[in-house]
Each structure stands twice: as structure tokens, then as C-alpha cells.
Write a structure and sequence with these properties.
mainly alpha; Rna Polymerase Sigma Factor, Chain: A; Butyryl-CoA Dehydrogenase, subunit A, domain 3; 2 domains; two-stranded parallel sheet; 10 helices; globular
Amino acid sequence: MLQISRSLVQNFSLMESSRKTVSDQAMEAEWEEIQAAQQEPTLFQPLYRRYYEAMFRFVYRRTNDEQITADLVSQVFLKAMQKLQGYQFKGVPFSAWLYRIASNQVAQHFRNTKKNRMVSIENHNLTELAEEIKPEDNQHLKDLLIESLKDLKPIELSLIELRFFEQRPFKEIADILDITESNAKVKTYRILEKMKKIISKKMK
């Protein structure tokens, strides 16, 4: 089950920051930090401080609950520390690995609790998605669009969230989902086609 939130709490909206492409040099420097943390766990602290806020935003958009988010983010970093020895640099930002752990923790939480899965949507992002489905901006279409999200599989919903509601580039989506960039684009196109069919049935 899904629960749709048309806007986020103001404080967390303000936490959003512009995303910048991570340079190869920055990733290599971070890999050295990770290797040091693999040898000495206390050196994980700089990585924790760097990514805590981003992980909190990511999880909060999917729970809309501060306490649950704090608990899940703690689990994310605990899992990251437990698995850090097995982490290998593959030419993508360390954050992609953390987002993957966070996605799994959120999914596990909703499987265990059987509570409604939150999808946070801001109106301008919904408009952009509506234009991909049908280039006519009307409220009825947006309502049907929200309803169609409930018919998507979890992985399909995640891709739509990352692309349209969080405005992430395909390269970052691919890194987070551990797929190729071209595969991310193809999957998105197929999901949009699926949503069009769902909406067409609902309009009859």
C-alpha cells in the first residue's frame, strides 16, 4: 500500500541541496578514506558526517516520520560499517552504495511493519511526470497519475521516485540501483508506458 504526501515538512524541504557531479579525483580521494576506515573503524566518522544529512533526506521522503527515519538511518550506517571490509571501489561515488543500503532498509521496514509506503511528491515534479505521460496539464490527470503509482512494483516506484520526484540524473540512478545508465533509461521508458496504459484504463 502507498500513502501519498503532496509536500514535505518545510524544514526538510530546506535541507535539499543542489547535486553536483562527483569528480574522479574526489572519488579517488574518498576511496583512500574508505581504505583507511577499513583498517581503522574510527576513521569512518568523516564519511558518516559527510553523508548523514543526505541519507536522512532520502529516508525521510519515504517515511515522513522523523523518529522512524532516525532509526533507519542509524541502521544504514551500522550496516555500512559492518560491510565496509567487503566494499570495493568500482568507479562510482561511495554515496551510491549508501543509498542502496538505505533503499533496502526502507523496503525491509515496510515489509516488517506492513504499514503504508510513503511517496513524497511536490507539485512541480508531478507536473513534469504528467507531461511525460500526456502533454496536457490538468488536475484530473495528476490525480490518476498518483493512483497509477499504487499499481507499480516496488522497484518501478523507486525508479520513478529517483528520476521525477528527486530529480536525479540517470547516471546517479544507475549507480544507486546498481544497473547501467542505458538500462535505467530503458526501464524508465517502459515504466512510463505502463503508467500510460494504467491511466488509460482508469479514464474509461
